[in-house]
Structures are given as structure tokens and as C-alpha cells.
Hints:
- This protein is an alpha+beta fold.
- The chain is built from ten helices and seven strands.
- Strands 3-2-1-4-7-6-5 form a seven-stranded mixed β-sheet, sandwiched between helices.
- The longest helix has 27 residues, at 209-235.
- The protein starts with 6 loop residues before the first helix and ends with a helix.
- Bound molecules: zinc ion.
- Zinc ion is lined by residues 47, 125, 139, 141, 174, 200-201.
Amino acid sequence: MQSRWNERDAQNTIERLAGAGVNADIALRVYSTQLLGRDPKLVLHGGGNTSVKTRLPDLMGEAVDVLCVKGSGWDMAAIEPPGLPAVRLAPLRQLRTRDALSDEDMVRLTRASLIEPNAPTPSVETLLHAFLPHKFADHTHSTAVLSLLDQPHADELCDQVYGERLGRVAYVMPGFALAKQAADVFDANPHVQGLLLHKHGIFTFGADAREAYERMIEMVTLAERGSRAAAKLCLRRPSCPRTRLR
Ligand SMILES: [Zn+2]
């Protein structure tokens, strides 16, 4: 895969949205979310979401740290600032101390911390974004990554393809439990550049929009190559079900 980042387009997005009072963090979040969303290899069936941590005035005019994360009902390919509702970051992070949280309570608590009360409901993966420290986080359900994770020797393959660059999160349904587990995997190795979510997809992080986006492109490209190398690994394992089928 090729990075489609274009510095002039990124600057144009900043200038276009500055006129509407949108800050540069959110403008760049709009720009690279659209890049991801317009690539069918990355967002099959509309899956995926993105976020940025920034500072915004609340309705009383007081500056607060927020997470702007894709709202439900918005298509990444056509996202605009209203599709990235801002949620107060501190209360979201406090939720990590809980042992469990139902989906209904997660939605209620998240909506209660929205800056704009009429904003769309933030993604079901909001807490996963909130528990990570990085400014930008990109998440896709890339078919290449999913097919790599589905191979018979996935752990060994991922070691070969990514080494220590991506943390690995066992399968859990999206929601509070997944967010906590992903944050624990990250904390155990804070040097990782992203996370592989078993049977689900991939997160990449960055200090800026371009870094998070280009890490996604690089990791997906590595997955494409890794899937092609997977058959060789099976041949070296006489016990592999795939080899026995031949
Ligand atoms: Zn997902």
C-alpha cells in the first residue's frame, strides 16, 4: 500500500476548517480519517474509527482536554468535524478503574461527558482510544491484517512480520472489556507503535496525524507481504492442518 498523504491537501484542510473555528488537530484528524475511509482495503463494511486528543473550550468557555472520536452514523470517507464528537478526557480515563461496565452504561457515561449535548454518540471503541496516551490513534479492520491473524501459525507469523512493534490483544467483543485489555497490553510494552486485535483489526498510534496514518499504511503493507509468506510456514510444519489437506 502507498501512503496517500499530501502535505498541500493537509494544509488546505487546516485552512478550510479554520474559517469555521475548527482547530488544526481536528482538521488533520478529518483529513487523515478521510484518507483511511476512502481506501476499500482498510475499511471493508464501513469498519474502523479514529481519534485525536486536543483542547477545546466547553460550553462555558473554559478550555478542557477532550477526545474527539468518530461518532456513530458517520462514514470515515466523508467525515467532517461534527462527525468527531468531543468528549471530556478525564472522566473517560477514570472509568479504567472499574471492573466492568455494560454497553448501556458506557454509552450513558460517554454521552454525559460530551461537550456538545446534541453530538452523535461516540464510537463503541471510544474508551480504547481514551485509555491510550497518544495524540492520534487510527483503527481499521484491514482485510490483510485480518487474514494474517487468521493464518494457522498466526503468532509465529506476527513475530516474523512485526517483531515487537505491535502489541497483541486476544479476542474480546468491542466494549469496555476490550478497552481495558488493550490498555493493559499497551502498558506492558509502551514502546509498541500499535496493537493487533485478534479477529478484529489493528490500531496504530502517533504523535501527529501523519505518523499514525503512515504507520497504518506500513503495518498493513507488512501484513500483505506476511500473508503471502504464510504458506511456507505451513510447509515446514508436517502437523499443520493446512499441509495435511494438500
Ligand atoms: Zn473495530
